[in-house]
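Subgroup meeting minutes
Present: P.N., E.W., G.H.
Scribe: E.W.

1. P.N. recapped why we're keeping a running log of single-chain structure predictions: easier to compare across weeks, and new members can see raw inputs and outputs side by side.
2. G.H. added today's entry (172 aa).
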Amino acid sequence: MLKKMPELRTCQLLRLAVETDIPHIAALERTSVARAYVGQWTEERHRAALSGGDARYLVVDQPEGGLAAFAILRGLAETSHAIELKRIVVATPEKGLGRRMLVELIRMAFEELGTHRLFLDVFEDNARARHLYESLGFVFEGTMRDAARRDEQWCNLRLMSMLANEYAKRRT
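Output recorded in log:
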């Protein structure tokens, strides 16, 4: 039996996505910056994930309409006490939005969802993202060799995580 998904408090930065956000989410994935480092899901796959009960989509609105960014947390319906940061995409990188989002996502995972472990994988050649994750307390766990295809080539992914006790130490 699946556990009931906990409610998330929204913050000024993030809001829970709704179905009408899906075309914007899919469009963000298809930008040249995102295509290099994140998977490309169809709108149907995003709709299924959004309504499936195991994932939460969080978005940042642009003042002029559309989305500035989105993130997907998965594993919320599991009993393993591990949540995956499946995806985070920012329309305009290097302006600090990704960092602000991650700080809030990490807080939500540990303080609101009560997870024991927050984990993600990142392309080995995405040095900027790896640096950001490390600066926020994620620890490198290992390399998943030839774990993803990009431009018809196999690529390595690095597995990173943060544990609840590591998060608590950073908060003090």
